[in-house]
Please model this.
Amino acid sequence: MEIFIDSADLDEIRDVADMGVIDGVTTNPSLIAKVGRPLKDVIVDICKIVDGPISAEVLATDYEGIVREGRELAQLHPNVVVKVPLIADGLKAVKTFTSEGIKTNVTLCFSVTQGLLAAKAGATYISPFIGRVDDVSGDGMDLIEQLVTCYGNYGYRTKVLAASIRHPRHVVECLMLGAHVGTLPRDVILRLVQHPLTDLGLARFLEDAKKIPKS
Ligand code: G3P
Model:
């Protein structure tokens, strides 16, 4: 499973990219707003840090606006993936982007049937928001399983990009279900590093190392 970082914060992105575990980056308007800089400037800077797919979301909700913004974003860098909301005009735009060779990430997916339509329109990635499904008493993992099965059954090449991941258990279940990508906030990535037995073992090694005679 590829790991993307879900962030627009350059320091956060640089920090985890330096560990060599990041395959790409996803952003959204809320994450961009948090850093308080123009969207395109942030995306260009992210592209300098990570050499992989960088999702940049359009803000328009009508077909012409989505296509105009998406083309502009795609011109920023060859790694830019245009993130498009899962609405009717968004699907029309995905069809256009696909015919132009522009990669897309269809976002705000909450059902397998939405995911089917995104795949048919030619989406490169589909982003099911699993944490937000859990937030309303659903089971986000059911959605991942349904999408992975649906795409496998019919040979769609759209990749399931599990988004709205909130904790390591989500990551484990995505791995078991065969999600192609998981986009994780930095705090979840850092929690994946940690294990109490690693800390305990290291402390013991360092303590014992004091007993090693100096040469
Ligand atoms: O990038 C979209 C998604 O990951 C948002 O997550 O935690 O705001 O539901 P969250």
In short: The pocket of SN-glycerol-3-phosphate is lined by residues 6, 26, 28, 129, 131-132, 163-164, 183 (CB under 6 Å). The mean pLDDT is 98. The radius of gyration is 19 Å.
